[in-house]
UniProtKB/TrEMBL annotation, chain A:
Gene3D superfamilies: HUPs
InterPro entries assigned to the protein according to its UniProt record, in alphabetical order: ET-Flavoprotein_bsu_CS, ETF_a/b_N, ETF_b, ETF_beta_N, Rossmann-like_a/b/a_fold
Organism: marine sediment metagenome
Entries under Pfam families matching the protein: ETF
Record family assignment: Belongs to the ETF beta-subunit/FixA family.
Family annotation (PROSITE patterns): ETF_BETA
Official protein name in the record: Electron transfer flavoprotein alpha/beta-subunit N-terminal domain-containing protein
UniProt GO molecular function: electron transfer activity
Alphabetically ordered keywords of this record: Electron transport, Transport
Transmembrane segments: none
TrEMBL record, chain B:
GO BP annotations, alphabetical order: fatty acid beta-oxidation using acyl-CoA dehydrogenase
The organism of origin for this protein: marine sediment metagenome
GO molecular function, one term: electron transfer activity
Keywords: Flavoprotein, Transport
Protein name as catalogued: Electron transfer flavoprotein alpha/beta-subunit N-terminal domain-containing protein
InterPro entries for this protein: DHS-like_NAD/FAD-binding_dom (IPR029035), ETF_a/b_N (IPR014730), ETF_a/FixB (IPR001308), ETF_alpha_N (IPR033947), ETF_asu_C (IPR014731), Rossmann-like_a/b/a_fold (IPR014729)
Domain spans labelled Electron transfer flavoprotein alpha/beta-subunit N-terminal: 4-188
Family: Belongs to the ETF alpha-subunit/FixB family.
Length: 262, 327
C-alpha cells in the first residue's frame, strides 16, 4: 500500500489580527506562525496508520518555499517515509487547477494506491485541489472522508454529508480521497522525533525537473485569479458589552434577564 | 448571453434548501446579464420534484435515469457534461455542499472551464465573471476573476443568497436524454449512515451553550458543563470538540451536524465559521464570548463580550444567579 499525501503549509490566523498587503491581493503574513493545514495533518496520520497496518510507504508532497521543509520534517517525524517539495518562482499565484496539475505531474510517476489531500486548505478554503488531482490522474475520488477500510483492490469509505448523515461508497484503487478532520487522532510530534527524522529523504524539485513548463502553472496556467483582498466591512451586528469583566457580565446578565432568557 | 443552468440538489425525495438559493442567485445574475435560467434536475423518478421546481422557475430540464438513483459523482458527471453540451450554458451553478464538493471540481476539470467555489457574491461584467468569497475562516474577503470563457462553473455558500419569497409563474418541464456508460465499478454507492441518537437532543432545547476550540483542555469541559446546567441549558459544540471526542457527535452544531433553533445560544470560544453558523437558525438571541475582537461570530451575534471565556464564565454565572434570586 503506497500512499501519497499532499500537504500545504498555511498561516495560523484564528486568533490573529490580519491585514491586507500593499498590493491588495494577499495578506501580510511575516508575523504569523505557520503550520501544516489542519486537514492535511489528519491525512498524514491516516496514511501512516494504514501503512503501519498493511505495509508499504507514505510519501508527503508539498508545493511551496523552503520554509515548507519544517512542515515536511514534521510529517516525516509522524512516520512518513519520504518527502518531496516542489518549488519554483513560476508557481506563484497558481490557482487550484494549476496546483493540482503540478501535484499530478509529480505523483503520476510515483507508485501509489491512494492519494490523500485535505478536504480544504484552511487559508483559501477552496476544496478543489483533491478532486482536480483525481481528474488529472484519471482515478476515482471521494471527498470529505471520515472512515477508510482497504480491502484488496478496493477501498470502502464513509463520506460526511449534511445534518449528521453519512454515506458509504466503494472505490477501486488507485483513488484520491480528501480527508476530513476527526477521522483519527493525530499523534503528537516531539522535537526529538523531528530530530530523529532528519535522516529521512526530503527531495526538492523544480518545474523543469518534473517536465512542466512555466506557463502550465502560475497565472498563465490558471483560470482564476484573486484581483482584490479586503477586510469585509460587515456591520458588527453584536452589541459589544465593554468594561471590566464584572461590568460586561452584569450588563449581559441584565439583558438576558430582561429578555426573559434566564 | 446563454442561459444560467442551476443544478438542483435533492436527497431522499426532498429538494435541499440550497436549490432555492441557487435559483435566487441565478435569477439575480440572469437579470444582470440579460439571460434566462434553467434548472437541471438529475435523478430517478423525480417527476414530483420537477413539478415543485416548475412552480417556481421558468424552465426545468429533467434527466431521469436509473443509474442516477443515488448521487454518485461519476454518473452525475457523465449526465451533466452531456446536458451542458446540449444546452451550452454560460454559467453552471451548484451548491458548496457535500454534493458540490464531490462534483464541481470534477466537471470543471473535464471541461477545462474556470471554477470558483464557496461564492458569497457573483457578478457578470459583460461576459466576465467575478466572484466574491471568503478566506482565512471568514476574516478576509477576496474578489476572484475568471479568465474569459464560454462557460463558467461556480458553487455558492448556503445562506449567502436568500431564496426568493414569491415564486415566479408556472414553468415548463422538459426532459433530456443522456447515455450513461456501463457500471465500471470504479465508484459505487453502498448505503446511507444515520447519526446515532444520543441521550440529549440539542434541537429540542431552548437554551444552548456551545463550546469550541477556545476550550483547550478536556478537563475544562467540566466548567462549561456546569455553567450550562446552571442556566438550564444543554451543552453543544463546534466540530473540533467532536473531533477530539470530548462530546458525542449528536452535540455538533453546523452544516455537518445539527440545526438548532433555541431562544438563547451562547457561543464560547467559537470563531464562527460558515459551516458552524449554518446550524443556527433562529430568531433567538445569540451571545458570543471570544477573546478575538475580529472573530466572525460577532457579525451574527446580538451580544458580545471580548474576553477570555474562563474569566467570564464564573462571573457571568454569579451575576445571573444574583438576578434570579433578586426576582
Ligand atoms: C465539509 C465541512 C463541514 C464542516 N461542518 C462543520 C459543522 O457542522 N460544525 C462546525 O462547527 N464546524 C464544521 N466544520 C469545521 C469548520 O470549518 C471550522 O473548522 C470549525 O467550525 C472551527 O471551530 P471553532 O470555531 O471551535 O475553532 P476555531 O476556528 O479554531 O476558533 C476558536 C476560537 O476560540 C477563540 N478562543 C480561544 N481561546 C479562547 C478563550 N480562552 N476565551 C475566549 N475565546 C477563545 C479564538 O479567538 C477563536 O475565535 C466543517 C468543515 C468542513 C470542511
Ligand atoms: N501548495 C500545496 N502543496 C501541497 N498540497 C496542496 C497545496 N495546496 C493545496 N494542497 C492540497 O489540496 C487540499 C485542498 O486544498 P484547496 O483545494 O486549496 O482547499 C489541501 O488540503 C492539500 O492537501
Amino acid at each position: 500500500m503506497d500512499i501519497i499525501v499532499c500537504v500545504k503549509r498555511v498561516p495560523e490566523t484564528t486568533e490573529a489580527d490580519i491585514s491586507v498587503d500593499p498590493q491588495g491581493t494577499g495578506i501580510l503574513d511575516s508575523n504569523l506562525p505557520f503550520v501544516i493545514n489542519e486537514w492535511d495533518n489528519y491525512a498524514v496520520e491516516e496514511a501512516v496508520r494504514l501503512v503501519e497496518q498493511l505495509g508499504g510507504s507514505v510519501t508527503v508532497v508539498s508545493i511551496g518555499p523552503e520554509q515548507c521543509d519544517e512542515v515536511l520534517r514534521r510529517c516525516l517525524a509522524m512516520g512518513a517515509d519520504k518527502a518531496i517539495r516542489l518549488t519554483d518562482d513560476a508557481l506563484a499565484d497558481s490557482d487550484a487547477r494549476a496546483t493540482a496539475r503540478a501535484l499530478g505531474q509529480i505523483i503520476k510517476d510515483l507508485p501509489f494506491d491512494l492519494v490523500f489531500t485535505g478536504v480544504q486548505a484552511a487559508d483559501d478554503g477552496q476544496a478543489q485541489v483533491g478532486v482536480m488531482l483525481a481528474g488529472m490522474l484519471a482515478v476515482p475520488h471521494a471527498t470529505v472522508v471520515t472512515e477508510i477500510a482497504v480491502d484488496g483492490d478496493t477501498v470502502r469509505v464513509v463520506r460526511e454529508l449534511e445534518g449528521g448523515l453519512g454515506e458509504r461508497l466503494e472505490l477501486k484503487l488507485p483513488a484520491v480521497l480528501t480527508i476530513q478532520t476527526g477521522i483519527n487522532e493525530p499523534r503528537y510530534v516531539s522535537i526529538m522525533g523531528i530530530r530523529k527524522a532528519m535522516k529521512k529523504e526530503l527531495a526538492v524539485a523544480n518545474l523543469s525537473e518534473i517536465n512542466l513548463a512555466g506557463d502550465q502553472v502560475g497565472p498563465a496556467g490558471s483560470l482564476t485569479s484573486v484581483t482584490r483582498m479586503f477586510i469585509p466591512t460587515v456591520e458588527q451586528k453584536a452589541e459589544i458589552l465593554t468594561g471590566s469583566v464584572d461590568e460586561s457580565c452584569a450588563a449581559l446578565a441584565d439583558r438576558l434577564k430582561k429578555g426573559g432568557l434566564v | 448571453m446563454n442561459e444560467i443552468l442551476v443544478l438542483a440538489e435533492h436527497r431522499g425525495g426532498t429538494l435541499g434548501d440550497i436549490t432555492w438559493e441557487l435559483i435566487a442567485c441565478g435569477n439575480t445574475l440572469a437579470e444582470q446579464a440579460g439571460c434566462s435560467v434553467a434548472v437541471a434536475l438529475l435523478g430517478r423518478d423525480v417527476g414530483q420534484l420537477a413539478e415543485q421546481l416548475a412552480a417556481a422557475v421558468g424552465d426545468v430540464v429533467v434527466v431521469d435515469n436509473d443509474r442516477l438513483e443515488h448521487f454518485v459523482s461519476d454518473t452525475y458527471q457523465q449526465a451533466l457534461v452531456q446536458l451542458i453540451a446540449q444546452r451550452a450554458p454560460a454559467l453552471i451553478l451548484m451548491g458548496h455542499t457535500a454534493c458540490g464538493l464531490e462534483l464541481a471540481p470534477a466537471v470543471a476539470t473535464s471541461l477545462a472551464i474556470p471554477l470558483v467555489t464557496d461564492c458569497i457574491g457573483l457578478t457578470f461584467e459583460g461576459d466576465a465573471l467575478t466572484a466574491t468569497r471568503q478566506l482565512y475562516g471568514g476574516k478576509v474577503s477576496a474578489d476572484v476573476l475568471c479568465k474569459p470563457s464560454d462557460r463558467y462553473l461556480a458553487t455558492i455558500r448556503g445562506g449567502a443568497f436568500p431564496a426568493d419569497e414569491s415564486p415566479a409563474a408556472a414553468g415548463t418541464i422538459s426532459t433530456a436524454e443522456v447515455t450513461i456508460e456501463e457500471d465500471d465499478g470504479l465508484k459505487r454507492f453502498i448505503e446511507y449512515l444515520e447519526c446515532e441518537a444520543g441521550e440529549v437532543d440539542i434541537t429540542q432545547s431552548d437554551v444552548i451553550v456551545a463550546v469550541g476550540r477556545g476550550i483547550k483542555e478536556q478537563k475544562d469541559m467540566a466548567i462549561v458543563e456546569e455553567f450550562a446546567s446552571s442556566i438550564g441549558g444543554v451543552l453543544a459544540c463546534s466540530r473540533p470538540i467532536i473531533d477530539k471526542k470530548w462530546l458525542p457527535k449528536d452535540r455538533q452544531v453546523g452544516s455537518s451536524g445539527k440545526t438548532v433553533r433555541p431562544k438563547l445560544y451562547i457561543a464560547l470560544g467559537i470563531s464562527g465559521s460558515f459551516q458552524h453558523l449554518a446550524g443556527i437558525k433562529s430568531g433567538g438571541t445569540i451571545v458570543a464570548i471570544n477573546k478575538d475582537p475580529n472573530a466572525p461570530f460577532f457579525t451574527v451575534a446580538d451580544y458580545g463580550i471580548v474576553a477570555d471565556l474562563f474569566k467570564v464564565l464564573p462571573v457571568l454565572k454569579t451575576k445571573i444567579e444574583e438576578l434570579k434570586q433578586g426576582s
